């Protein structure tokens, strides 16, 4: 079994339509069923312009040649009435 890692440093204009959103990134590893896994970053509070995560994700992989890493961001809108 091999290990692999993904380092998430930062982003720019993650959600240009809502610059006050709180972005979070999900990193997913796809492959044979035993290798499939996903992890989420911390949420960066109200900064969709230049969010900084500095997160590292470690995955255990049995068949590296059959694996694919995917990532996407989710944006949480700023709630009214909260500062």
Write a concise keyword list for the protein shown above.
83 residues; mainly beta; Immunoglobulin-like; two-stranded antiparallel ribbon; elongated
List the helices and strands and how they pair.
Layout: E1 2-10, E2 22-30, E3 37-40, E4 52-61, E5 68-76
Antiparallel strand pairs: 1-4, 2-3, 2-5
| Helicity level | under 10%
**Considering the protein shown, what is the CATH homologous superfamily?**
C2 domain
CATH topology: Immunoglobulin-like
What structural category characterises the helix and strand content?
mainly beta
The CA-CA distance between the termini, in Å, is: 47 Å
CATH C-level name: Mainly Beta
Which descriptor suits the 3D outline? elongated
Q: What strand order characterises the main sheet?
A: 3-2-5
Number of domains: 1
What is the chain-wise order of helices and strands?
EEEEE
Structural summary, described in words:
Strand 2 and strand 3 (37-40) form a beta hairpin. The chain has strands at 2-10, 22-30, 37-40, 52-61, 68-76. Helices cover 0% and strands 49% of the residues. The chain has no helices and five strands. With 83 residues, it is an all-beta fold. The radius of gyration is 15 Å and the shape is elongated.
Summarize this entry quickly.
This protein is mainly beta and 83 residues long. The chain is built from no helices and 5 strands.
